Amino acid sequence: MRVGFGLVRTATPEYLRFAAQFGATDISINLNRADLPSAGGRWELQELVKLRQSVEMFGLKLSALENVPTDFYDHIMLGGPRRDEQIENMIYTVRNIARAGIPIFGYNWMPTNSWRTPSKQIRAGAEATAFDYEIAQESPLTHDREYTEEEMWDNLEYWIKIITPVAEEEGIRLGIHPCDPPVEKLGGIPQLLRSFDAYKRLTEIVDSPNNAIEFCQGTFSEMADAADGGIYDMIRYFGERKKILYVHFRNVSNSVPKFHEEFINTGHVDMWKAMAIYQEVGFDGFFIDDHVPHTHGDTDWGHRGRAFANGYIQALIEAVQKQAVR
Hints:
Elements: E1 2-8, H1 13-21, E2 26-30, H2 45-56, E3 61-66, H3 74-78, H4 83-99, E4 104-108, E5 117-121, E6 127-132, H5 133-136, H6 149-170, E7 173-177, E8 185-186, E9 189-190, H7 196-205, E10 211-216, H8 217-223, H9 230-240, E11 244-248, E12 258-260, H10 271-280, E13 286-288, H11 303-324
Parallel strand pairs: 1-2, 1-13, 2-3, 3-4, 4-7, 7-10, 10-11, 11-13
Antiparallel strand pairs: 5-6, 6-12, 8-9
Helix pairs in contact: 4-6, 8-9, 9-10, 10-11
């Protein structure tokens, strides 16, 4: 098990140096609103190679690209008139990510991206993002109409059956992030990947190691009360089946319909217990911090919060690994 950093939009020398100094080995770059050059809704091999090399200059590995801009594949998710065009472009992009030497592509099935409602102050006035389903349900439609569960599943299955053989051919693993927050519907769009059963269905569409999961532990823990064993059962189930590509290792106050982000060691999940299960099932990927609370004097990116979370992750990895060899 390894520790990584998640970077948003760009891998600047300052961010990469910070990650290396704090002991990371792996980098995941979230490009959902990317500055990476694109033409016609797809990415070129040369630009992806440059991105990988910029990370490697700091002794780090670019282990995953997380997301493409939503308008690269919104018609795929919603069954729009440009679906076939976008599928061709996404196949082209996925092939280029693989050929650039980047082993994982993580994406989501959220045409409206993640949702949050007004933030909340937590310990000593630190500010954390929050969600209240009652407030969110007052929002208008985000697209042209209400969509049904059936058509959204049809669209997902159509895509998975096309892209998985491409991933197998190119040797790249694909993982879908859960819908965050994992509620029934937001803005008229069903949030498909919101439960344990939904993820079982996803991984069974095409039973392949290349059809896997970007395991956002925070979102999975929003699906069920940790006291009921939900998050721990999900880690064990998907970990034993080698479906977890990498982990967003964060904590939240409780499950839906209402929750807020927490410091990594103060939410409703026992993070030591979770890490011990990753160790038990032989997980060999990496962990990144995610959604850290904003603390006094911190930067917009959250250098202090990320350093705290990163150190906590490293300590937990060391603890469970040393315990395992006693």
